[in-house]
Amino acid sequence: MNATPSLPIKPEPASQQRSDGTLPDAIATYGLTKYYGDRAVVDSLDLRVPHGSVYGFLGRNGAGKSTAIKMLMGMVRPSHGRATLLGEEIDDIRPETRSRIAYLAEGHPLYRWMRIRDAVRFTRPFYPTWNDELLEQILKHFELPLGAKIRRLSNGQRAQVSLALAVAPDPELLVLDDPTLGLDTVVRRDFLESLIQIIHRQGRTILFSSHILGDVDRVADRIGILVDGALRVDCPTDHFKQTVRKVLLEFASTPPELAPCKGLVSGQQVANRLELIFAGFGDEQRQAVEALSPVSIDVVELNLEDAFIEYTRGTKRALPVFIQERSDAQTTSSQGAA
Question: Are residue 51 and residue 192 in the same domain, yes or no?
């Protein structure tokens, strides 16, 4: 696998604006790495989350998403590398900057002996910009009375309380680790879309990890995908969906072998058919498959969930192709695996 292309390692200015007047990336990591024993759970992560974006942070179980988020939150120390949040080093972040960041942990941990009003009283002092009116609106929306005992709430209701507490500080940066865990389908969609609209409309930044790809597809304008701890995709959501294609080749008899081809992610034979996954399917790739003389060629567009599965799946996949949008030139590149 090619290593993720390195980016210049230099600190962002601590002020809220760069010298050119633009805001620094809300989240930036530089070679962020975490080893457990001999295994790199997060491997040389160079992540950029632009200010004001909604960034979906994806990967299969064990890919390193939660570990990366915990390093950003200062809960796990990296083995190597560094990171900044809102332009400040995570090791030296000021309390006033920390108060502009909200974090919702996986599993929605709450003190179950508390009532909702107790959780509010406990959380409010940590955030000088606490918005009681917004909190009340959200709790009312979910029909959650302040006097309700947390231990008597369902998993979905506890998730709703956690989400409300995360939004109430009106954070500039909101980091969510599987935020819709425990919510039923209707409530999950309603709340997540409302949450994104409220914060994104005000220029806030959201990083969220989720196993529910439909949620990501609806709300994220950019995605990053970790594969075995390394960032293999970092681009707009639509670009990823447009890039990954399934190509179905039908043959009259046993399919021939396909020679190594630029952008080929994986392939498998099913009877007299070849199913190929490409990251970028253009003239070069079409010529390669036409050279096999198939009876038919069908290029299938994929939704985000299908594209993610095909790109990251297990034994039948080849080493993944790195997908990234080059924002400086508004061009894209796909680099083949080694």
Answer: yes
Last residue of a domain, one of 159, 194, 228: 228
Q: What is the pTM (predicted TM-score) of this model?
A: 0.80
The pLDDT tens digits for 173-192 are 989 888 776 677 777 777 67
Sequence letter at residue 122: F
Q: Which two three-digit tokens encode residue 141? A: 């929306």
The answer to whether the beta carbons of residues 325 and 236 sit under 8 Å apart is yes
| Separation of first and last alpha carbons in the chain | 5
Q: pLDDT for 65-80, tens place per residue? A: 999 999 999 999 999 9
| DSSP codes, 241-268 | HHHEEEEEEE-SSSPPPPPP-TTEEEEE
Q: What per-residue confidence (pLDDT) applies to 22?
A: 60
Cα–Cα distance measured from residue 44 to residue 30, given in angstroms and rounded to the nearest whole number: 7
Closest CA to 100 of 205, 208, 19, 207: 205
pLDDT along the chain (338 residues), means of 10: 30 43 82 94 94 91 90 93 93 89 80 91 89 88 90 84 86 86 73 67 82 84 91 92 92 87 86 90 90 93 91 59 58 40
Return the amino acid letter for 126. F
From the number of C-beta atoms within 10 Å of its C-beta (0-12, 13-18, 19+), residue 115 rates as: middle
288 in the same domain as 148:
no
Tokens representing residue 239 in the block: 């670009």
At 332, which amino acid appears? T
152 and 57 co-located in one domain? yes
What's the pLDDT tens digit per position in 70-119? 999 999 999 999 999 999 999 899 988 888 898 887 767 788 899 999 99
Identify the CA nearest to 231 among candidates 12, 97, 21, 33: 33
